[in-house]
C-alpha cells in the first residue's frame, strides 16, 4: 500500500508534470471507484490543473476549484504515460480504473492512469469542492510529519492500544501504514505489542525522532523518482518489513512475522522484544 512517502512523491510528480495542464477526457474503466456523483467526474474536464496535495495517504489533484481525490488503498497505483492510447479503455478489462488525459501548454497530450492490482477492488475516487468533505480526510489525525513531540506524547499517553495499532490508525496519526510502522518500530527498538501509554519519556522522544527520520529519509529517496519506480524504491529501503526469514541488518537475528486477518507485520526479536518470539495468531489457530 502506498504510504506517506510514496503519496508525497506522487503529489510532487504531479506538481512537476501535471500542474499547468488542462484536463481533457476522463475515461472511467471501473464505475465502482467513483464515490461521488455530484459534481460528476466530467466536471473536471476542461479545467486547469492548479495543484497537487497529500492528505495522509490520500492524493488530491486541484483543478480550478474542484478536487480529484483518490485513495490508492492496498493495490492501487498511479501510472504516467507520455503517449497514451487515444482509444477509450474497455470497462472491466485489466487493472485500469480511471484514465485522465491532459493537454500541456507545450502541446503534449500525456495521461495518468489509476490502476489497481488484485481481486479486491478498494481504490476510491471523489470529485469535491473541498477535500475535507471526503469522509476519510475529515477523520484524519495529525500528519506524521507535522505532529510535535508533545502532541505525540499526549496521543500515546491517552491510548491503551498497542504501538503498532496506534501508528497505523489514520484517525490517530495520518500517513503511516503497515510497512513504515514496522521500520519505525524496528529502528526505535520498540515492540509492536508494547502498550502506547507504557512508554517512558526517553522512549517517546526516541520514537518521535525515529519516526521523522525514517519518513523524511523515505520521502527524500522517493521524490524525484519516476512514478513507475517508486514501489521498487520503497521495497529496497526496508530493513525488516517484507523480509521474514532474512537476517536483521542490525543484529543478525532472523526477522520474524506475525500474521493477522489479511495482513502481517515483521520485527526482529533481538532488537525489539528482548529475544521473545511474539505469538503468530495464524499459527496459533492451526495448532489448536
UniProtKB/TrEMBL annotation:
InterPro entries: DNA_glyclase_Znf_dom_DNA_BS, FPG_cat, FPG_N, H2TH_FPG, Ribosomal_uS13-like_H2TH, Znf_DNA_glyclase/AP_lyase, Znf_FPG/IleRS. GO terms for molecular function: 8-oxo-7,8-dihydroguanine DNA N-glycosylase activity; class I DNA-(apurinic or apyrimidinic site) endonuclease activity; damaged DNA binding; zinc ion binding. The keyword Mitochondrion does not apply. It holds the Pfam family Fapy_DNA_glyco. Transmembrane segments: none annotated. Its cofactor is Zn(2+). Residues 2-200 form the Formamidopyrimidine-DNA glycosylase catalytic domain. It catalyses: 2'-deoxyribonucleotide-(2'-deoxyribose 5'-phosphate)-2'-deoxyribonucleotide-DNA = a 3'-end 2'-deoxyribonucleotide-(2,3-dehydro-2,3-deoxyribose 5'-phosphate)-DNA + a 5'-end 5'-phospho-2'-deoxyribonucleoside-DNA + H(+); Hydrolysis of DNA containing ring-opened 7-methylguanine residues, releasing 2,6-diamino-4-hydroxy-5-(N-methyl)formamidopyrimidine. Residues 239-273 form the FPG-type domain. Keywords: DNA damage, DNA repair, DNA-binding, Glycosidase, Hydrolase, Lyase, Metal-binding, Multifunctional enzyme, Zinc, Zinc-finger. SUPFAM superfamilies: Glucocorticoid receptor-like (DNA-binding domain), N-terminal domain of MutM-like DNA repair proteins, S13-like H2TH domain. PROSITE patterns: FPG_CAT (PS51068), ZF_FPG_1 (PS01242), ZF_FPG_2 (PS51066). Belongs to the FPG family. This is Formamidopyrimidine-DNA glycosylase. The lineage of its organism: Bacteria, Bacillati, Actinomycetota, Actinomycetes, Mycobacteriales.
